[in-house]
Design brief:
Ammonium transporter fold, 18 helices, about 475 residues, two-stranded parallel sheet, mainly alpha, homotrimer
Chain lengths: ~475, ~475, ~475
C-alpha cells in the first residue's frame, strides 16, 4: 500500500533529524549533571568502610539513585511496554501501536527534560538532571501517550511528534502553575498527567473528527492474540502503578504509603471491573476491553491522594468506584460521545484516564481539606509543607486542589483545540479514512506465509479441479 | 456460545460485589498503616542532610520500603505475569488464563492481608500493613494460583473465587501453625506455598473429576504462539525466583544468600530439564511442556533451604535433582495419576510444585539438622534464632521442619477435600465437559477475521465447483 | 521431521549432564560465599534499631545486595527475555530462539562464574560469589548470546553449548587482560561484551558458511505476530540498558551518571533510527528489523564512556550516530558481508553490537584521553583511579583504551576462527540447509489446529469433488 499523501520517505527523516538536532544543541547549552550525578560532587572519604569499592563515603550510599532508580525503571516499563502493548489490541495496528509509542516516548522524554527543567527552576542558567528529572520526564511522556490513545490509528507519526512538541510544553506550563505556583499536591498525577492527557487528547480527536471513519471499521477491533498482547500492557501498568504514584513522593513513609494505597485501590478496582463487565456486557460474558482498561482506573484515581493518609479502607473505596465508573463509561458514555459530540476515542481514554483522573482530583481535594495534625503528626511537613508551616489551612489546600483541577481542564481543552487545528495541516501525512487502523500505511508488513500458503493451496485446488473438468 | 448454566450475568457481579464490600468493611474496621507507612511515625529532623528533600531524617532512608519494595515488585510480576502467562499455553483459554488469574489474585491479596494479619498477630486489635504484608499477601496468592493450575479450564470464575476464599484462610492457618507456633523456617515457601498449593489443588481437582473430559480433549493443547506466550510466564518466574525466595528473609546476608542459592539452583535445574526432556520425549525432541514447567522446579526446591548455608554447590545439586524429578513426573507419573487416581491436573502442578516442594521441604529439614555455629557464626541468630538462643538444637529444628511438611500435607489434602465438595454445588456455573478449555463460555471472543475469510473462501470454492458441475 | 543426524535423544542429555556435573564438582571444590553473602560475615548488633528485624546492624543495610540487586534483576531480564524474545522474529524459530537462549544462558552463567572467578583473583584458593559475580556472569552470558544471534537458525543446541564453553573462557581471558592487567575502563562492556561477542560470532558464522542456505530462505523471515514478540525483547533491552551499563560501576555518582548517560544515548538513537529507516527502506516505510535492532545501538555505544563525564549532550551525539550507523549497516553493509565475505549474520549483530561496540570503544578512548581533574574533581578516583593516583596520565589511559579495542578484536576473531572449526565436527548434529530456521528439527511443535483444520477442509473439498466427478 503506497500513497504519496502518506509517504514518509522524506518527511519523517527531516522531522526526526531537525527535532533531535535541536534537542542536542539545547542540551549542550542548557543541561548539566545534578549534584548526585556529577563526578565533582563526589566527597572523598579517608576511611573506606566497604571492602569491594574504592573509597566509598557514606554519601555514596545516600545517593538519590538508590532511592529512586528502582521506581524509575518500573515507570519506564509502564511507558514503553505498558502503554505500547496496551494499544496492540487492534488486529492490524500492532507495529504502529508499539512502534509509534516508542518513537514519541523517546522524543518526549528528551523534550520534557528541557521544558520541565526550564519551568521548574534552572540554577545558574542550567537545567540539572538526574534520576528525578528522568522520572518527571517519563511522567510527562505518559501524558502524551494517553492522548495518543485517543487518536490511535488515525494519525501519522509526524502528527504524533508535532502533537508531542506542543503537549509536552503545555504539560510543563500546567505542572508549573499547579506544583510550583499553587503548591498543589499531585504526586501520581491524577490531574497533571491523567486529566491533562485525557482531555487534551479528546479535544484533539474531536477536532480531527472523521465522519467517514466507518470505512475502516472492520479493522478497528481485536483478534484473539492481539488481545493477549494487550494484556501484557495492562498487567505491567497494573503491577507497577504503585511505583508510578510513589516515584517522586518524599522519602520514607510517604513513598511507602503511596505505593500501599495504590496497590489496594487497584485490587478493589479489579473486582468491581469484573463485576461490572459481566453485568453490562452481552450475555453476561466478560469483555476484554473492560478488563484491559477499567481495571487500571484505580491507579489513576489514587494519583493525587495516594501520598495522603487516605487509609487502605479509603483507597479501596476509591478504586472500587473508579472501576464502576470506568466500565459504565465504556458501555454507555463512549457511544454517546462519539455520536453526539463527535469524539472518536479509539482506546477509550475518557474512561480510563479522563473520568478516573477527575475522580482522583476530587478525592485529593477532599482528603487535603480534612487533613489534621492529629492524623499526620510530624509527617505533615512532607505531605502538606504549607499547612505544616502555617502558611495555609487544610481547607485552603483543599480549595487549591479543586482550583487546580479546573485549571488543568482549561489548559488541556484549550491546548487540544489549538493543537488539533495545527494537526489538520495536510503536510503531516494523515492516513485516509479507508486505511486507518492499518500498519501497512507506514510499515513494511511481512507477508503472512501461512495465509499465503492457504491461498496458494486454494488456487491449486481450483486449478486442479478446472483441469479435471476441462480434460 | 450461551448457556444459562454457565451464564455469569448476575452471579459474577453479585459474588464480586459482596466479596469486595466485605473486604472494604473489614479493612475499615481492622487495618491500619504500620510504623514505616504511617505519617505519624515520621521523625522530624532538625538537620536535613539531603538537598532535594524536605527535612529527611536518617530514619527515612532506613524505611523498610527501600529494602523490600524491589523484591515485592519482582514477586508481583511473578504473580500476575508469571502465573498468568504460564497458563496461556492452552490454545483457546488465554483470556481465561490471564484474566481469571488476574481476578482471583486481586481478590486473594486483599483477603490474605486480613487472614494473615489476623493470625500473625494483631497489635491493639489492628492489622498493620506495609511492604511486608504486601509480599506475604502475594505469597498466599501464589498458593491459590498454583491450585488454579490443577483445575484450569474446568472451573468457572465463581468457583475460583470461592476456592480462593477457603484456600487463603487455610493457607493462613497452616502458615500460622508452622511459622508462629512451631518456629519452622520456610522463607521461600517450599512447604507453605508450593506443597500446600499443589496438594490442595490436586485434591480439589480429584473431587471435581470429570469422567468425560475427553469431549474437550482437542482444546486441551497448545498452538505455536500460545506456547510462546507461555514462555513469557516461564521466564519471568525463572528470573525473579531469587527475589521470591529472598523477599521476606532477614536483612543483610540472609537475603543476599537466598537470592544467590536460588539462582544457582535454577541454573542447574534448567540443564537437567533440557537433558531429561530430550531423553524422554518422542524422537529426542524437546517438549515445551517440560521447558515451561520443569525448569522452574529448582526455584521451588530451594524455597526452604535457600536462606540457609546450603552453599552454591548444594543449591546446584538440589536444582539438578528437581529438574530430573519434574520431567519424569510429567512423562510417567501424570498419566498414572490421571488414569489410576483420577486426578486431572491441567498444568501438571504436581510436577512443578508438588514433588519439588516436598523435595525442598526435605532438603530444608536436613540442612537445618546439620546446622552448626561453626558454619553460621553470628549469622545463626538470623537464620535459626531458636537454635542461637539455645532454645532448641539443630537436629530438633530439623525434626520440626519434617513435621511441618506432614502438617502441611494434611491440611492441604483435608482442605482440598472439603473445598472440592463445596465447589461441586451447581450454582457456581461450572462449564460442561464439552466446553472445557474454551474461552467463549465466559468471554466475548473476537471473530477471527482470518479464519473467517478462509472458511468463506472454501465455501466459495465449493459453491463455484458445484455450479460448474451442475452447469 | 526426524533425522538421525540431528537427533538429540542421547547427544543433548549426555552433553548437558556432563557439563552440569563438571560444574557442580568445580563449584563444590572452588566456590564460596563472599563476605556479604556468608552467614559468618554477620556482625552482631547489640542495639537493634529496626523494629521488624532480629538484631539488624547498620552493616546489614549496607550489604552490597541493596545497591546492586535491582540492577542485577534488570540485567537478568535483558539476558533471558531481552535476548530471547528479540530473536523470536523468525516465523518458525520462536521455540528455539527463546528455548536455546534459555539453555545456553543458564549454562553460561555458571561457567562464567568459574572462569571469571578464576581470572579475577581467587582468595585463598576460592572463588567468592555474591551479587557482583552474578552480574558479571550475566554480562559474560550476554556476550555468548550476541554470538548466538549470528548463527541463529543454523546450529544445534549442542553446537551452541560447545561454543559457550569456549567463548566464556576466551571472554574471561580478554576481560582479565583488559580490566585487570591493563586497567582498561569498560563498565558497560562496549569492548568486552559487544565487540567481543559480535566479532567472535561473525567469525564463527563465517567458518560455518552454508553456500546453499537459500534452501531455507523462505523461513528466514518474520510473520506479523513474531515481529510483535520480538518487540518485547527490544523494549526490555532498551529500557534496562541504563541498568546494564551502570550495574558494576562504582557506588554513588558513577552509577547514577552511567544510567543517565545511557538513557539519553538510547533516546537520541531511537530518533535517528526511525529517521534512517524511513529514509532507506522501500517506499518510505519503516522496517521492523531496524526498529528492533538499531534503536538499541545507543546503549552499546555508551558502554565504555557511560561512566565518564560524557555529559548528556555527548551521550546524545553518540547515540544519534550509533543509530545512523546501525541502520546503514543493515541496509547496505550486511548484504555485502554476506555476498563478498560469506558472513551469514542472521540477526545482523554486526550492525547492533559490532560497529556500535567499536564506536563505543573509540568514544571511550577519546573521553578518557581528555579527562581532567577540573571536570572530575575528587570523582576522578572512582572513574580513573590510575590517573588520580598519578600512575598514568589521561592521554595514556586513552591509549590503553584504544589498545584494548585492538586486543579484543584480535582475541575475538582468532577465537571465533578456532571455535568455528571445532563446531564443524559432524557429531554435534547441525541441521541440514533445508531445515534451518525450523523449530521442528529440535522441538515437538504443536499441530496448528487451525492449519490442520484448513488442510483437512481442503482435503475434504478435493475428495468430495473427486467423488462427484467420478460418480
Amino acid at each position: 500500500m503506497t500513497d504519496t499523501a502518506t509517504n514518509m520517505r522524506l518527511r519523517l527523516p527531516i522531522t526526526c533529524f531537525i527535532l533531535e538536532i535541536i534537542l542536542i544543541i539545547l542540551f549542550g547549552v542548557l543541561v548539566e549533571y545534578d549534584h548526585d550525578t556529577d563526578a565533582k560532587g563526589h566527597v572523598n572519604s579517608t576511611s573506606p568502610s566497604h571492602s569491594d569499592s574504592h573509597a566509598d563515603s557514606p554519601a555514596d550510599y545516600e545517593n538519590e539513585f538508590y532511592y529512586r532508580y528502582p521506581s524509575f525503571q518500573d515507570v519506564h516499563v509502564m511507558i514503553f511496554i505498558g502503554f505500547g502493548f496496551l494499544m496492540t489490541f487492534l488486529q492490524r495496528y500492532g507495529f504502529s501501536s508499539v512502534g509509534f509509542n516508542f518513537l514519541i516516548a523517546a522524543f518526549s522524554l528528551q523534550w520534557a527534560t528541557l521544558m520541565q527543567g526550564f519551568f521548574h527552576g534552572m540554577k545558574e542558567g542550567k537545567i540539572h538532571v538526574g534520576v528525578l528529572s528522568m522520572i518527571n520526564a517519563d511522567f510527562c511522556t505518559g501524558s502524551v501517550l494517553i492522548s495518543f490513545g485517543a487518536v490511535l490509528g488515525k494519525t501519522s507519526p509526524i502528527q504524533l511528534l508535532v502533537m508531542a512538541v506542543f503537549e509536552v510544553t503545555l504539560f510543563a506550563v500546567n505542572e508549573f502553575i499547579l506544583v510550583t505556583l499553587l503548591g498543589t499536591r499531585d504526586a501520581g498525577g491524577s490531574m497533571t498527567i491523567h486529566t491533562f492527557g485525557a482531555y487534551f487528547g479528546l479535544m484533539v480527536t474531536r477536532i480531527l473528527y472523521r465522519p467517514n471513519l466507518d470505512k475502516s471499521k472492520h479493522k478497528n477491533c481485536s483478534v484473539y492474540h492481539s488481545d493477549l498482547f494487550a494484556m501484557i500492557g495492562t498487567l505491567y501498568l497494573w503491577m507497577f502503578w504503585p511505583s508510578f504514584n510513589s516515584a517522586i513522593t518524599e522519602h520514607g513513609d510517604p513513598q511507602h504509603r503511596t505505593a500501599l494505597n495504590t496497590y489496594y485501590s487497584l485490587a478493589a478496582c479489579t473486582l468491581s471491573t469484573y463485576a461490572m463487565s459481566a453485568l453490562t456486557a452481552h450475555d453476561g460474558k466478560l469483555d476484554m476491553v473492560h478488563i484491559q482498561n477499567a481495571a487500571l482506573a484505580g491507579g489513576v484515581a489514587a494519583g493525587t491522594a495516594g501520598e495522603m493518609m487516605l487509609t487502605p479502607f479509603g483507597s479501596m473505596i476509591v478504586g472500587f468506584l473508579a472501576g464502576i465508573i470506568s466500565v459504565l463509561g465504556f458501555k454507555f458514555l463512549s457511544p454517546i460521545l462519539e455520536k453526539k459530540l463527535k469524539i472518536q476515542d479509539t482506546c477509550g481514554i475518557h474512561n480510563l484516564h479522563g473520568m478516573p483522573g477527575v475522580l482522583g482530583a476530587i478525592v485529593g481535594a477532599v482528603t487535603s481539606a480534612v487533613a489534621t495534625s492529629d492524623v499526620y503528626g510530624h509527617g505533615m511537613e512532607k505531605v502538606f509543607p504549607d499547612v505544616e508551616s502555617g502558611e495555609r489551612t487544610a481547607s485552603y489546600q483543599g480549595g487549591i486542589q479543586a482550583i487546580s483541577l479546573a485549571i488543568t481542564l482549561g489548559i488541556a481543552l484549550l491546548g487540544g483545540l489549538i493543537v488539533g487545528f495545527i494537526l489538520k495541516l495536510p503536510v503531516f501525512g494523515a492516513p485516509s479514512d479507508a486505511v486507518c487502523f492499518e500498519d501497512s500505511v507506514y510499515w513494511e508488513v511481512p507477508g503472512e506465509s501461512h495465509e499465503a500458503s492457504h491461498e496458494d493451496q486454494l488456487t491449486t485446488v481450483r486449478a486442479e479441479e478446472s483441469e479435471r473438468l476441462n480434460s
